[in-house]
């Protein structure tokens, strides 16, 4: 569904350029940045699910991986993969490094 959303976004930007609402260079930069962000999130998500990935040797990565697995247990929490800004903003964030409230229990599924 994310790929569908990216395609729809690019179509909307393209229509904006053809209608003269969005300058061409802004559209190109916007699409490039969106694709880079999509690729980065896809790459990190894939790395979270590989037990032999080289990033597993870093503690920060293992912490982020634990935070990601919260989403697999509770799909309404921790949507962010490479960043948690929107989770914190939309109140969908559970920090695995702090005590978890009883209604937000997390099961370790590694």
Commentary on this structure:
There is one protein chain. The chain is mainly alpha-helical and 110 residues long. It is built from four helices and no strands. The chain has helices spanning 2-18, 24-48, 59-73, 85-89. The longest helix is centred in the N-terminal third of the chain and has 25 residues, at 24-48. The radius of gyration is 17 Å and the shape is elongated.
Brief sketch in words of this structure:
This protein is mainly alpha-helical and 110 residues long.
List its traits.
single chain, mainly alpha, 56% helix, elongated
Q: Which blocks of ≥5 consecutive residues have pLDDT under 50? A: 99-110
| Element string (H = helix, E = strand) | HHHH
Mean pLDDT: 79
Q: Helix segment count? A: 4
Shape assignment: elongated
- Proportion of beta-strand residues: under 5%
How many runs of DSSP E, i.e. beta strands?
0
Radius of gyration: 17 Å
* Largest sheet data: none
Q: Ends: how far apart?
A: 25 Å
Q: Helical residue percent?
A: 55-70%
Q: Structural class from helices and strands? A: mainly alpha
Topology, pairings included?
Blueprint: H1 2-18, H2 24-48, H3 59-73, H4 85-89
Helix pairs in contact: 1-2
């Amino acid at each position: 569904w994310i790929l569908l959303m990216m395609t729809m976004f690019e179509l909307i930007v393209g229509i904006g350029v053809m209608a003269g609402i969005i300058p061409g260079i802004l559209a190109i930069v916007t699409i490039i940045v969106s694709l880079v962000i999509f690729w980065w999130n896809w790459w990190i998500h894939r790395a979270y699910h590989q037990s032999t990935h080289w990033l597993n040797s870093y503690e920060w990565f293992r912490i982020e991986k634990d935070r990601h697995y919260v989403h697999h247990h509770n799909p309404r929490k921790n949507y962010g993969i490479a960043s948690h800004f929107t989770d914190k903003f939309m109140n969908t964030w559970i920090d695995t490094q702090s005590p978890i409230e009883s209604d937000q229990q997390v099961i370790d599924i590694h």
